[in-house]
Amino acid sequence: MTSKKIYFLSLTGLFLLAITPRAFSQGDVVKERKDLMRSNNSAVRAIDKAAKQNAFAAVEENAKQIVANMDKVAALFPKGSTADNSRAKPEIWQNWDAFNQKNAAVKTAAEELAKTAAAKDSAQLEAKVKALGTQGSGACGDCHRTFRARAKR
Fold first, then answer.
1. Among candidates 67, 87, 65, which has minimal Cα distance to 135?
2. Per-residue pLDDT of the chain (153 residues; tens, 9 = 90+)
3. Complete domains list, the chain, with CATH
4. CA atoms of 100 and 106, how far apart (whole Å)
5. CB 47 within 8 A of CB 62
6. Which of 12, 46, 55, 66 is most buried, taking the most CB atoms under 10 A from its CB?
7. Nearest 5 degrees, angle CA 47-CA 54-CA 102?
């Protein structure tokens, strides 16, 4: 082999080593954020069920899980982290500050719900559950309507 071929193959190998982790990491981050959002969805469903039964401890626990998850959201949306299986809209990165404000609103709503549940305040519980919402309502729904594309059919 000539030195030019060795040089070319070496450069090609280095290039592939440089881009391969990035390609895999984009898919990994999409999976991580989908898992986080599934976790939030499960928590919201558990909150709805527990709130109807005035199971304050379960409401509080699940609300705190959402709070903890919301602290991770920004890191799971690095610029350009899109994939065919992602429903993240480009508006996330075009309006990064607004996206972060929506996430903060979800976190605040979950914190307020956790406090209400800890205080066993049944009079305020329903209102705080509604403020947190689901994919179609409340703080969660507000973010999804703005920054999440419809499911592909």
1. 87
2. 676 666 555 655 555 455 444 443 455 999 999 999 999 999 999 999 999 999 999 999 999 999 999 999 999 999 988 888 889 999 999 999 999 999 999 999 999 999 999 999 999 999 999 999 976 789 999 999 999 998 877
3. 3-147 (1.20.120.10)
4. 10
5. yes
6. 66
7. 30
Residue with tokens 């594309």: 149
Structure tokens at 22: 């990035």
